[in-house]
Amino acid sequence: MVKKLLLLLWISPIFNCAIMLAQSSKNIPPDTALLQSIIQLQKALDEWNKKKMLQARATFEQLLAYSNDQWLVHYYIALSDLYLTQYHLSSKEKDEVKKYIKDGIENLERSIKLKENFADSYALLANLYGMEISLSPTKGIILGPRINSVLATAEKLEPNNPRVHLVAGISAFHTPKLFGGGEDKAIQRLNKAAELFETYQPPSPLYPNWGHEEVYAWLGLIAMKQNDFELAEKYFNKALKINPNYFWVKYVLLPQLKEKQN
Amino acid sequence: MNCKRNDFSIVRLVYISFLLLLPSLLLSQNNGITLEGKVTDQTGKPIPYVNVYLKGYMKGSMSDENGKFKFIVDKHGVYTLVASHIGYETYEKTIQIRTEEAIFIEITLREKTIEEEMITITASVFTGGEGKGVTLTPLEVVLTPGAAADVFGAIKTFPGIQTISEGSGLFVRGGDVSETAVILDGAYINHPYRYESPNGGYFGMISPFLLKGIFFSSGGFSVEYGNALSGILDMKSLDLPYEKLINIGVGLAALSTMIKLPIKPDKVGISMSGNYSDTRHLFKLNGHTYRFSQYPKAYDTNLNLMYQYSSKGRLKLFLFREKNDIGIEVKHLSEAFYEGDNVTNFVNLSWQDLIASKFLLSGNIAYTNFAKKQKLDAFLDLLTDERLHQIRLKGEYQISNNMVLQSGIELFRDDISYKGHFQFPDEETSGSETIKVDANYKAYRLAFYSQLQVNFSTKLSYVIGFRCECHSKSNQQLLDPRSSLSLKLKNNWDLVFSIGQYHQFPEPVFFDPVIGNPDLKAMKSWHYILGLVHRSESTILRIELYYKDYKNLLINDQKLNYVNQGYGFSKGLDFFLKRDWEFFKVRISYSYLEAKRKWMNAPKLSPTKFDIPHNFTVVAQLNLTRLNIGMLYQYAAGKPYTSEPNQYHDKRTPSYQRLDISLSYLFNLIGNGIDVFYLAISNVLGRENILDYIYSPDYKKPVPIKSVMLRSFYFGISISL
């Protein structure tokens, strides 16, 4: 009984120090806050939870006046906008989609203005333009060449950035062969992305490191389209191996595959 | 014994722990100040997921489904509270936390007015290019059947434009072709047509491939535009090229090439184009109802240099040279051929920048030299040489989120020389009288305008402005007030209303003391326009009613040659419907018009030559990825003409009807670009349209003026590398 009391008394101060630290959260170093938000965003994506995506985005917004790397925070706001765009596209809310695409592009433009040589900003910009085309296909004529130009800039800056090749592959998949796209080109780019992901090391944990599982999701989707169900399953399982919580593969693509196999 | 020592240790431990606990106990007495509240929009509806936080601190919370938020602040102080949410203006407020009391704040967020909607939906406006409400892009111009890839040809398929002839002249809502101003990158182009004729000309001089956007207004246009009574065609040339492009086109009557080169991506770029057209083979293949002494032939070349020196600042130098030749028989003067030879040299330096994040400034300085040689046997041999200088500065200042002030100043110097001779039949000697011409006219025009745009809410927007103008020949200082209003109704309907005064000065030659009248004043018009517009994702519907009152028009006078006693009116209704499906697009335009004037040589108030009561066009396009099929059907009621000596515009020609079909096929031959093969068939039904009747001087013999070609084919190919 005494021993328990002793233990309690010794632990309490430590406990209280922790409470003190938690209460004065404004003393969290900006980098830690940013890292926390990045993890928060990934979690929101895995759970495909709109509220959590918005919360992560809100935290990034607060970080703008708090962090020293504003260019990186703008990037992550745009990344949150990308996920929110995908979310609203799947629930067919066109007006929301437009707003998030526009906001994402604005944030990336600011990021690029602050740091011109960050290839990921360009890759994400191309990704958002692609979203705009899926919303209004007639914009393809204007935005198609723009996507190519932005990706070219990204590739010039960081030829070994896997996300640049990932976005190039997604774009090629959605572009008719006539205009320089097509499934073969997409597979070529996605394979290159997969290869680069094996060895890619982000300069710091704060730098974007997403997309590895997405490469295999797209490869699987293309295989499924070409009726190679075995290959598709192989790719989907590879994606889940990298991220067992991957919402898109787990709850959308795999069930689609099962349906086709039957 | 043991117990005693243990007891003492425990007390010590308790005491020390209490000491360690003390600070945290004291701190936790101050649990922080609660900051809570509710976020609603302007109608009082709660907004969920609003990010409410203290700027510069990682402190905040998101509002819930009821718009309620709550978080704890540690210390007293002065903070900036921010509330942000996509689609709303960000809210910021300074708050002071001095006591322990909880603070309750009610936050109202204002809906963000989307920029494109803020650029007023003025009456009678059709814009092309990137942006909301697009109705015509340069690519659409090229794909519009029957337009022959001509900007003017494509604009003619919109309501408010009457089909007077088969040329390119824009006769807008009962206004003459000379009453519509054509502008490129801010520079007025006085002679925008090739093969100029009294009805305008054939083909616009500027190819749609050089353009990024086309803004056309059939009335009620803003104070930014002047010296035009009826309409405005405002074109913007291309921006910095994104990537290298080489395009070569070969057609039955034309050869064209365009090169776009980004020299330094997003900084410096250049685009060049060259076009050569010779219609000899076109007419030989399709036959022609007129004889030619010179088949229409033209060439043009353009150089466009762009320098984006900062994120918002850019300079553009546009150089253009064009030459066209034609020799065509004049039906009512047997054996007479009209020969025309025009050369245009145009240079425009334009600039745009955003100063101090609030002032959007733009300006341009342009020089145009237009030389026209006209010969009609012995009757006419005239050389016109026009030099136009213009300079312009325009500024836009965002006073607040809902108010924009726009102002501008422009100066024109027009210098026109005429040299040559006219021959008239002399009634007295029954021979002919030759009049020699060697004259030069200079006119200066200075204009200043200012307008204020106010968005009262997301539903109501209002523009009011004025334009001052003075002219060196006519001793007047003019003030034109113009205003427009746009009101958002339910279900994507907008109501637009426009009212304004417009002026246009007569050409400098009319002020000549011998053949004109040096005391002439400007012609004037009042526009009243009321319209309803409905926009949805795939449909645009527009109905407009207008009344235009014309005063001080030029009218022939025995003694003074011309006086400003002419007047007239035009009124009508324009209907426009555009609907896009996935593979199919259709555009229907209908105009009803009544245009009467007592001007020029009209003896009394009578229908003008552009009084076409009913004008109807349908454009339909089928898009099957690689294959595009388009159709244009036009119907225009007959045009007035004079059939007897003592009459004026007493009869009407039969109606004008034409069906055109075009086909284009996309493929990929070399490189990464898109290649196009196109085939156009004009007047598929082979209808012999009569455009006008011209009478011999004794009115005994009417000469019907028909189209130059009946059914005709045109084909070509365009390769992009």
**Structural class computed from helices and strand pairing of chain A:** mainly alpha
The number of helical elements of chain B comes to 5
- The share of residues in extended strands of chain A comes to under 5%
- Describe the global form of chain A: globular
CATH class descriptor name of the largest domain in chain B:
Mainly Beta
Q: Would you count the extended β strands of chain B for me?
A: 41
Low-pLDDT regions of chain B: 1-5, 25-29, 114-123, 127-135
Keywords (chain A): Signal, TPR repeat
Signal peptide (chain A): 1-22
TPR repeats (chain A): 213-246
Protein name (chain A): Tetratricopeptide repeat-containing protein
Indicate the topology.
The complex is a heterodimer of chains A (262) and B (721).
Chain A lengths: L1 H22 L6 H18 L2 H14 L6 H21 L3 H21 L4 H17 L4 H18 L4 H13 L8 H17 L12 H14 L3 H14 L4 H15 L1
Helix pairs in contact in A: 2-3, 2-4, 3-4, 4-5, 4-6, 5-6, 6-7, 6-8, 7-8, 8-9, 8-10, 9-10, 10-11, 10-12, 11-12
Chain B lengths: L1 H28 L3 E9 L9 E4 L5 E3 L5 E6 L3 E8 L6 E7 L5 E7 L5 H4 L6 E4 L9 H6 L7 H5 L5 E2 L8 E2 L7 E5 L2 E3 L21 E7 L13 E7 L7 E7 L2 E11 L3 E11 L1 H7 L5 E17 L5 E16 L7 E19 L3 E18 L3 E21 L2 E24 L4 E25 L4 E12 L5 E12 L4 E12 L18 E13 L3 E19 L3 E20 L3 E15 L7 E2 L6 E11 L2 E10 L3 E2 L9 E2 L3 E12 L7 E8 L7 E6 L6 E5 L5 E9 L1
Parallel strand pairs in B: 1-7, 11-14
Antiparallel strand pairs in B: 1-4, 2-3, 2-5, 5-6, 8-13, 9-10, 11-12, 13-14, 15-16, 15-41, 16-17, 17-18, 18-19, 19-20, 20-21, 21-22, 22-23, 23-24, 24-25, 25-26, 26-27, 27-28, 28-29, 29-30, 30-31, 31-32, 31-33, 33-34, 34-37, 35-36, 37-38, 38-41, 39-40
InterPro entries (chain A): TPR-like_helical_dom_sf, TPR_rpt
Organism (chain A): Kryptobacter tengchongensis
Pfam families (chain A): TPR_1
